[in-house]
From TrEMBL:
Keywords: Cytoplasm, Methyltransferase, rRNA processing, S-adenosyl-L-methionine, Transferase. This is Ribosomal RNA large subunit methyltransferase E. It is an enzyme of class 2 (transferase). NCBIfam families: PRK11188.1. The active site is at K161. Residues 28-204 form the Ribosomal RNA methyltransferase FtsJ domain.
Length: 206
């Protein structure tokens, strides 16, 4: 079947993307790794001993860089609807995060511990209908914020991919209600034409 012009353009862009090539050289599972590396350098979301919840983790680009930093004294609990190859130091829960059973499984994996950070690179499967996709994306980040409010320790951090559009401004306000400082990041590895930004919440009010 012939590819559409849009999918061909995306494929050409992906193949020629310097971060895709760099990820292959550096052994990272995803170009998204560089987004979190840059954000963490600026905002110190996790360190040795941190307990981190990674939502929308597959193929593992974020967990892969967090786990060695938090080390044996820390923990990474990752979840995605898609399968993810195992990573040393990462507890992976496969399932639909929007389902209560999966949400509860993440809570059980924490085993009463509070998290230092909740990070989310979740995005819905895109339908191509702009408003539908935006509502689906906002629903996921609202659930991520709900998870953060439930599991973060006071002073903890939050980082979530958000798409600018309907509901974005309200969401920023909601994050500001729960965190002492909120920063909007657009990492270099994020494609300029993409509407995605990363909202960083520092200092959970608890």
């Amino acid at each position: 079947m012939a590819r559409s012009k849009t999918s061909k353009k995306w494929l050409d862009e992906h193949v020629n993307d310097p971060y895709v090539k760099k990820a292959q050289v550096d052994g990272y599972r995803s170009r998204a790794s560089y987004k979190l590396i840059e954000i963490n350098e600026k905002d110190a979301l996790y360190r040795t001993g941190s307990v981190v919840v990674d939502l929308g983790s597959a193929p593992g680009g974020w967990s892969q860089i967090v786990a060695p930093v938090v080390g044996d004294s820390g923990r990474v609990i990752a979840s995605d609807i898609l399968p993810m190859d195992s990573i040393i130091g990462v507890t992976f829960i496969q399932g639909d995060f929007t389902e209560e059973a999966v949400y509860n499984e993440i809570l059980q994996a924490l085993d009463g511990q509070q998290a230092d950070s909740v990070i989310s690179d979740m995005a819905p499967n895109l339908s191509g209908v702009k408003n539908t996709d935006q509502y689906a994306a906002m629903y996921l980040v609202e659930l991520a914020l709900d998870m953060a409010r439930n599991v973060l320790k006071p002073g903890g951090h939050f980082c979530a991919k958000v798409f600018q559009g309907v509901g974005y401004d309200d969401y920023v306000r909601a994050v500001r209600e729960s965190f002492q400082k909120v920063i909007v990041r657009k990492p270099a590895a994020s494609r300029p034409r993409s509407r995605e930004v990363y909202l960083v919440g520092k200092g959970f009010k608890g």
